[in-house]
Amino acid sequence: MFQFESYHQLNTPSQYRYIESYLSIFERVLHQQLECNNRITCIRLDLRFPKVSNYQDPKVISRFIDALKARLNVWKSQHATQGKQHHRLGFSYVWVRERAGSHNWHYHLVLFFNKDAFAYLGVLDLNRDNMRSRLVEAWSSATGMVDIEVKSLVHISSKEIKYLDSNSAEFYDQLNSFWRQFTYLAKVATKDINDGNRNIGYSRIMFN
């Protein structure tokens, strides 16, 4: 296993000022993933609120994570009932809270999964049981809004899904590409909300 400290010093982009404690957290979560999963799906997403509302409940992000875990448990139960092979989920996450030019804050997240369990998001169809729909449903549950209201507030672009394979000859290229994207969440700009609530959260234990 390579040393994260030297990797971070050599490979963190220089175009922003970063919060060093956040970078240390990112390294910790990623190191945990690489110790447990050889193949990892990394999903970068944004969670926002309607511009017409004034949303000030900091517990919403915890409710989102809990709602997503509940939907993952349903998926596991369905697979067990149907006798399908079940891979460990290997789910962990990092989120940061920001505000930039709006009265509402927003969240940037990276979700990690064992790629053998989840490799694709699927299309957004609230009648289908796939990862993209689960994310929308979890944000709906967390905010108390209906699915159709929040689907445009859960943003994931195809460029923001990365894969890491520690056994691949291309692993370091994959890691470099992902790390550039990941460290954006640690930039100093837009983090200074100063309302007494946390601006970062992460998983201590992997959810399987």
Automatic annotation (TrEMBL):
- The record places domain YagK/YfjJ C-terminal at 36-203
Q: Cite the InterPro entries for this sequence.
A: YagK_YfjJ_C (IPR057271)
Protein name as annotated: Transposase
